[in-house]
């Protein structure tokens, strides 16, 4: 896999910022992902992310850490953080910014420790890829939780991206869940391989969570159908 994200983050960190990442999906046109946003500090984060960071406790696993902004803030607050990502370049940036414990690995391959908090932000459900993979990921996430641990994860309901019928419903694809997208990223003329990314509406997510042994709680909702959820495992 091409490390488009890592290349862009390294360029920005080393002062070679000349352009942003371009993203495109199977339901939307090309859009810019500004590199400075990936290096934002706490005051520049949306309230949903701020709330998630404030709720973190104990040992924390930051999944898909990117440039390490969340990990760095938590570490500076005295929490013990493990930051993981599949992007080699992103992890190099995270390490250079001062995060002490980083590891290049996918979530499903990680099993080294258990945590009090598992953090998945910037559409954390995206890592699930497709709707049929949700139980598999939830099962693995549960195996990484300490007793009384929590998962803090955000996502959005993409119903606003689709046409509305006269009755108030939405026209959605017949062959897939409407929150399943296929992304590509482009940076400095280089195009990534297509990858799946899941946006999961909160009602459906709650059903999956309960079916897999979790209590589901919506912590905060935004103005554009985004939300932060907390999952805690029911005792055996």
First CA to last CA: what distance? 39 Å
Radius of gyration: 18 Å
| Main β sheet profile | 7 strands, mixed
Element pattern in H and E:
HEEHEHEHEEHEEEEHEE
Number of helices: 6
Gross morphology is: globular
Which spans have pLDDT < 50 for at least 5 consecutive residues? none
DSSP E strands, number: 12
Return the structural class.
alpha/beta
Mean pLDDT: 94
Description:
The structure is a single chain. The chain is α/β, with parallel strands linked by helices and 236 residues long. The chain has helices spanning 4-13, 47-55, 69-76, 88-96, 134-143, 202-211, and strands at 21-25, 28-33, 59-63, 80-85, 102-104, 115-120, 145-156, 180-187, 190-191, 195-198, 214-221, 226-233. The radius of gyration is 18 Å and the shape is globular. The termini are far apart. GO terms for molecular function: methyltransferase activity.
Question: What's the topology here?
Answer:
Layout lengths: L3 H10 L7 E5 L2 E6 L13 H9 L3 E5 L5 H8 L3 E6 L2 H9 L5 E3 L10 E6 L13 H10 L1 E12 L23 E8 L2 E2 L3 E4 L3 H10 L2 E8 L4 E8 L3
Parallel strand pairs: 3-4, 3-6, 4-5, 6-7
Antiparallel strand pairs: 1-2, 1-8, 7-12, 8-9, 8-10, 11-12
In a few lines, what is going on in this structure?
The protein is an alpha/beta fold. It is built from six helices and twelve strands.
Jot down its keywords.
31% strand; 6 helices; five-stranded antiparallel sheet; alpha/beta; Class I SAM-dependent methyltransferase; globular; seven-stranded mixed sheet; methyltransferase; 236 residues; methyltransferase activity
